[in-house]
């Protein structure tokens, strides 16, 4: 009996008696019976916090994990074991208590209803005359009760069906309580060490699904990542969380259906090889999730299917993290932020995760405004290895009376209808990805030169997203599997550390280039008046080729930026009859570099180093050196990144000094290397072979960033602006001459 009582004491390691015996008390050879009596103490708040964090991730740790915890927290292994046992017991007790409360409520409701019916049957009266009712008649009061009872049952069934869709499994109205998401478990604090046994509120109460008899659905407060009502930049917008949940569920249902249906909903376009949506069939088959389109908005909807070198879990985690999402689509996502985490998922996975996000989507041209969208991102696991992620705009829910007009200068109105991807694991470790983009935007804000491209769905459609995903996945796969890439004309390979530093430097260069082209808020550019290119008088003003967008910013010598006044000049031109691949191959050819690049002084360049970023030879980071005969150019190198896929191509370069690159290739910090990127963004023009506006060609955006004065406080002169504008115009004319392109539009 004494041993049984001792084991019972050992197992009582809950909120008020964790074993903390000394070494003498644990010594089995100690003969003093008084010392065998256990002495207990409470865990410290730091130990409780660490144990709670591990419990949220793994409620059943194995022996190895318990040993590691005991070592890190200075506890015994059995103390950790008993703590987890009691923690699981308390969690089970809390859930059972909640289930019993639901059952009691339902039982009280049925008992009241039964008593009412019995009372009505004991003395039936006629509702018309007030006399005794004839057998078989039902009183008016009883009719009202039955109608109300039926309505309440239907409402309860609807709410349970809605919760079942969110949880991914059926939810019973009586017998099964709602399972608690993992983020709700944070309220179940087993706060050993507090006087009342709980450090915080304990288990947060789950509010009724039906408030005030209305059909308004309310999410449990425990799954909220904070006050959603005041998380919109201080705008104080009241949000119906039930409306957000219903919007996400409806969007998820539509996305799954549109990815499974083929003809006649989706029609293949033989000219561009895309599947486009049949809008007439779509309107017949689906109810609009966001209501009617705003006036002046046009729709684009495309679907693309492909294979990516990534598994479904890694891809889902990347898409649900705004930083990794932006890195995966650097030329599409200018900026992204998570405004609120409504639900972090269930069971330790991303399934059921709901996030309110805001993003700036870009097409690399000054003629296309940035699309700023506020949307709900909902992730759900439909089966083992099968995931779906849907995005849908929430402007109609957050601000139903504000409309969807254009935002600040440089932005255009846009909203996302149910868009996203279905990810399915394959046996070889890859993933089959079906991407759908369905958007509406204000076409009046887009220059005529780029309207055919956006209408075709090639600018920000499914192909653009999937091609960028495939290229980034291929880059990471090669980076992990190829420790010694090609290294150009150097006799020694770049070290792994030097390669990583060089790739980071190239990524910063490409990001700065994109920010300068689209004038995002990431860099504080001051926009100047548009300059007209000299010698463009015979062109059509609608072409956009006679205008150069000028922007300036003052750099005070921050890391990675030269001090002084920086001028950015950007313009877009159309090269009819010239395929984008031909333009890309010409611009990355170092032997013909001298035909257009002023830094080459009219001569060819030599590739010193080459780091492959994909199977295509055009996806690479290179280090170019001017020809030895250039004389004073021996201290300058050209860092260049080129990338291409089915949606378009990019060529970005910047001059760097030799000493800085030697430090970078030796594994040194690349953050202090000053860069002013220039380059080209190449896209198809959106025209088809049978169009009346000439044959299909290319849209090329040319952008230069040039330091015009070394003093940050210096004034920008008209002569400096004219010089940069003429340099841009001269470069375009040289490229057109080399590719034999005229000035036709």
Task: Tell me what you see in this structure.
Helix content is 32%, strand content 23%. It is an alpha+beta fold and 745 residues long. Among the domains are: 242-396 and 413-478, 2-Layer Sandwich (Alpha-D-Glucose-1,6-Bisphosphate, Chain A, domain 4); 496-529 and 546-742, 2-Layer Sandwich (Alpha-D-Glucose-1,6-Bisphosphate, Chain A, domain 4), CATH 3.30.530. Strands 3, 4, 5, 6, 7, 8, 9, 10, 11, 12 and 13 form an 11-stranded mixed β-sheet that branches. The protein is globular. The termini are far apart. InterPro entries: HD, HD-Zip_IV, HD-Zip_IV_C, Homeobox_CS, Homeodomain-like_sf, START_lipid-bd_dom. Residues 34-94 form the Homeobox domain. Keywords: Coiled coil, DNA-binding, Homeobox, Nucleus, Transcription, Transcription regulation.
Q: Judging from the principal axes of the Cα atoms, what is the shape?
A: globular
Percentage of residues in strands: 15-25%
Give the distance, in angstroms, between the N- and C-terminal Cα atoms.
98 Å
In the CATH hierarchy, the third-tier topology of the domain at 496-529 and 546-742 is known as Alpha-D-Glucose-1,6-Bisphosphate, Chain A, domain 4
Number of helices: 16
The beta-strand count equals 23
Uncertain segments: 1-31, 174-236, 533-544
User: Kindly state the mean pLDDT as a whole number?
Assistant: 77
CATH superfamily of the domain at 496-529 and 546-742: START domain
Examine the secondary-structure arrangement and name the CATH architecture of the domain at 496-529 and 546-742.
2-Layer Sandwich
> What is the name of the CATH class of the domain at 496-529 and 546-742?
Alpha Beta
The oligomeric state of the chains shown is single chain
Helix content: 25-40%
- Class based on secondary structure composition and strand pairing: alpha+beta
